[in-house]
TrEMBL record:
Pfam families: DUF1129. The lineage of its organism: Bacteria, Bacillati, Bacillota, Bacilli, Lactobacillales. The chain crosses the membrane at residues 117-142, 154-174, 194-216, 222-239. This is Membrane-associated protein. Keywords: Membrane, Transmembrane, Transmembrane helix.
Amino acid sequence: MSEDLRDKNKQAAEKQKAASAKNTKKEEITSEIYSANVDDLRKKLSNKNAEYIFKLNKYLMDNGFAEAEAKEAIDGMLPEVVDNQIKGIPANQLYGPVTQKAQDIAHPKKPVKPTPFWASWLDTSLLFFALFGALYGIVALTSKTGAKSNPNNQTGIITLIILSAMWGGLLSWFNNQMKKPKDQRPGWGMTIGYLVVGLVLMFVFLSAMTLIPASINPTLNAVGYFIAAIIAFGLRFGFRQMTGIKERAFF
């Protein structure tokens, strides 16, 4: 029994050693490719990739690129082309059609900068302020007694500001977690746990706000809330234009 176990451990160690040696070899080959002379790399191109490079060069020159510019752009691609060629991935599969790659070279996409959390929080909070403001306005408009007649109401302007900030922070955090690669996201159990805790804190906050006097947490009439909602939406629009935020608050 012990001999069988030793044999299995020995085989597993040998497999691991072989896999490690294989990975090391791949890394060495990749390093050689990216440090090689571009003329040597051109000689290593398969017929299919060589044809792709030829057509790409011709297309670039036919569309305003100088010969030196086209060569520089293509030379920068060659290590990646040869590296993927070894893996069985041809250039047309790697980059798409020649016309598409030429457009990518002529009009390179600028990397999108991630939105800082504070900016996402403020953006989402302003959106919630506008939504809650409109909702409070509808409630005040349709209420028979009116919001101001209830001394313990939860529709004061301070309530609206803090509640919007809490929802904005919670949703921004959730959106940031969902944007991470799958292997870096917290588990669904932990995510749901955070959301539940956040919701509980909001309900506790709303209950506590009934103890705040109206002089500190004044309510507005329906028109006032609608105006506040419009102002918040306008501020959010201007803020997004100023900071260049493109992401949506809701998925």
